[in-house]
Design brief:
Layout lengths: L4 E6 L3 H12 L4 E7 L2 H11 L3 E4 L7 H11 L4 E6 L4 H10 L3 E4 L4 H12 L4 E2 L1 H12 L4 H6 L3 H11 L4 H8 L3 H15 L4 H13 L1
Parallel strand pairs: 1-2, 1-3, 3-4, 4-5, 5-6
Helix pairs in contact: 2-3, 8-10, 8-11, 9-10
């Protein structure tokens, strides 16, 4: 059984794209299934090949941030990781709010990038450590945890409650009689709506909302 993570790389700088492709290809467990250079390429690749993880730059023709919702329109369960030089909180929060589940800074080593991809492919979110502390600090100042949790659909609440007690996506799927990929899609929506990057933060948001 092939357990390799299928990855697509979309970046308008050929040398950088080739470097990422070559580096990941040399690490066990990864397969590069496509390359692209624009937002339109990202949409096409997601719609036709459905890679496990789509790596995408922000600064490229069509705009990486604008491409996120377009990609999710054609492939709602697509796992998107932004791989970019931008460290601005606005870009990070916009990317996550639009549906990306990972944010990695260019310049990281191949092993760090591989770890981030594995994390996202497993169903969790990932934000570069240098950025995550800044985001968490900013979120603690934001009111309305209860309102954010209240924005979840009944099904999303069911999924979150089970995740909060430690269930994996597989066990949530069994409990709710859903397909595992459907649970992953619900988790993506939950993370986006709550403005968090992983399951632990989502569970904490649920706990905080119930304490207010």
């Amino acid at each position: 059984m092939d357990t390799r993570i299928r990855v697509a790389v979309v970046d308008d700088h050929p040398l950088f794209r080739e470097g990422v492709t070559r580096s990941l290809s040399e690490i066990d467990g990864f397969e590069i299934v496509a390359e692209g250079s624009s937002g339109a390429d990202a949409v096409r690749i997601a719609g036709t090949l459905q890679p496990d993880v789509l790596l995408m730059d922000i600064s490229m023709p069509g705009g990486g941030l604008d491409a996120i919702p377009a990609v999710l329109d054609v492939a709602p369960s697509q796992r998107i990781v932004m791989l970019t030089v931008s460290e601005t909180s606005e870009d990070v929060t916009t990317a996550l709010a639009r549906g990306a589940v990972g944010y990695v800074l260019k310049g990281v080593g191949a092993l760090t990038l591989a770890d981030a991809i594995r994390t996202v492919a497993a169903g969790d979110g990932y934000v570069a450590p240098t950025l995550s502390a800044r985001l968490i600090s900013a979120r603690t100042e934001m009111p309305g945890k209860s309102a954010l949790v209240a924005s979840l659909t009944p099904r999303e609440m069911e999924v979150l409650e089970l995740v909060a007690v430690g269930m994996s996506n597989k066990h949530v799927a069994i409990e709710l009689d859903l397909q595992e990929k459907t649970v992953k899609h619900h988790m993506t929506q939950i993370l986006t709506k709550l403005g968090v990057t992983n399951r632990t933060e989502a569970a904490m948001a649920l706990r905080d909302a119930r304490q207010t």
